[in-house]
């Protein structure tokens, strides 16, 4: 029992760089912001090297540090495993943790390949039978403005959806001297901009419209083919040595597809949009209205109501800071705004509610597998230069 008289759940986190720091912030604060039925206890953080793991545990608020995540499988005081490592380790850690009866939160994309994702789904299904839950961390779904967009579309405010225009624009590797960090290597990341940020806009397109992509056609490009090997790197920064290595993932991916509700969707995911830092944008056009969002202005949602008289109609800005807006009631008075980190707090709040109520959290591992299939279809289309690749919807 916690001081507040609530049940506690022990948490272990594997990995501690950018995503680990973002998740730690959420584990530290979720029960202070939200009236969740359980209080997370940050038991142990795992990393590869002892000194770095200990320093990260101290800084991020974990009680202990360890260098072998397998240790967690036998720990009775750990109920939840949070996976914040590069994609090549997701499957092994998630499958072992689920088999050991731990609830799992796994960073996106779910895996590096469809096969790994299928194995993770099989493990999650077996665990579900035993009341053990699994969720993949597409945090941007928990941006209040995007949760509001989904609610408005579900309520029919846009009518029949014709178009989704989604972009995720970053520029952190435009400099050819930026080193060959793990996100630029196929063996650790699976793909480049496509899986790292394209996966977010695929998820959001399906999330806000409530529709699935049924097929795609794609182009990918690697603008800088060789980069200095990293001498030091963390998160999205690093320094390079004099030796170079091949970049084995895409720098940019462009694709378009069909939605099962009849609409068309276009996507652009790039790390070469100079000046765009985290411009994750989505516009949805329906028969009676449109919505537009840009994460660089994350507290705003733009709405065009096509049912208004033409003389007065026009896009208007909804400032998504009202207590009636999704998640906002837990935070500040109207107009005071939230940040990137809150999306993770909301994600972990929803995860804890699902775990405690014995329901399935969303997005599930099945949803993660669906996105993995879209990523594979995009790669397939781009590599084979074939026009169209269908996506199985099972
Ligand atoms: C790097 O492109 C990255 O950190 C992604 O991995 C995250 O998912 C995104 O939120 C921010 O950018």
From TrEMBL:
It comes from the Bacteria. Coiled coil: none annotated. Residues 10-138 form the Gfo/Idh/MocA-like oxidoreductase N-terminal domain. Keywords: Oxidoreductase. Residues 148-291 form the GFO/IDH/MocA-like oxidoreductase domain. This is Gfo/Idh/MocA family oxidoreductase.
